[in-house]
Amino acid sequence: MANENVSVVFKLYCLTVMTLVAAAYTVALRYTRTISSGDLYFSTTAVCITEVFKLILSLGMLTKETGSLVKLKSTIEEHIIFSPKELLKLSVPSVVYAIQNNMAFVALSNLDAAVYQVTYQLKIPCTALCTVLMLNRSLSRLGTRFSVFMLCGGVTLVQWRPAEATKVQIEQNPFMGFVAIAVAVLCSGFAGVYFEKVLKSSDTSLWVRNIQMYLSGIVVTLIGVYVTDGDKVLEKGFFFGYTPWVCFVVFLSSVGGLYTSVVVKYTDNIMKGFSAAAAIVLSTIASVLLFGLQITFAFASGAILVCISIYLYGLPKQDTSRVSRLDASAESKQKLISV
């Protein structure tokens, strides 16, 4: 899919938007949880609103894809209203993604945006492991394994002596933040591979699958609001503490989740790896300026290792089958010559 004929300008556009969304989301979320003045909003409601916006955007994309309201109605009836089993199937990643999104709020309430951005790249080996276990694929390339070990080593350096932010005055728990990232990474790997497996099991439209998942996601996140902050929400209101910055975070989360499908379609692994590395750099710069992040040698070394490992992981695989065929052919010719 990534090799479709599109202009370099469009690919650069995809790369730029993906990088800015990834960096801006972590920095803005960190800002709303630590620096922004005013009453602190309920993170569970923000996750729920995000699911609602994703559903609306997916409905818009499905309307464009079907081309008419009549086809849209028949598609919704066929795949959603009269397909309870499919909704139940997509409820699995809905629950996992809901946990992941809530863990992001916990992590960024306790860790700097740059530290979060680097550590979150552990989703790469986690996704690779889930791919092996769930899709029966193999990590045959030596470079892939080496990049995974390098990434883990880089994250270890970053967490060994975490950089501190001098402008953040609230009490933080770095251990809780790291645990939250670990849970989010596991959820990201499992849900991503599960959703890929569902997509490839049928010819159902991506936007239909998204709608099925977000419908379940809204129900799951509403339950999360009730269980976690039910009494406080009833007392203070669903949108208590919301500011333009909070709305910006919800917007970035909504658009970023849907934009991933466009990026996967039109860019390759090298560009996505470069985007992840650029997002780390931008998050670090923003953290220094906004939160007074003090860069340590361990953090800088770990971040560089992570960026290099992301690039190595995205390198295309060599077609060894063709090489082996050429070698066999050359060997046969040599035998004929010797005879």
TrEMBL record:
One CC-aspect GO term: Golgi membrane
PANTHER family to which the protein is assigned, alphabetical: NUCLEOTIDE-SUGAR TRANSMEMBRANE TRANSPORTER
Matches recorded under NCBIfam families: nst
Regions that span the bilayer: 12-28, 40-63, 142-160, 175-195, 207-227, 239-262, 274-291, 297-315
Membrane topology: Multi-pass membrane protein
One MF annotation (Gene Ontology) recorded for this entry: pyrimidine nucleotide-sugar transmembrane transporter activity
Protein name: CMP-sialic acid transporter
Cellular localization per UniProt: Membrane
UniProtKB keywords: Membrane, Sugar transport, Transmembrane, Transmembrane helix, Transport
Pfam family, one: Nuc_sug_transp
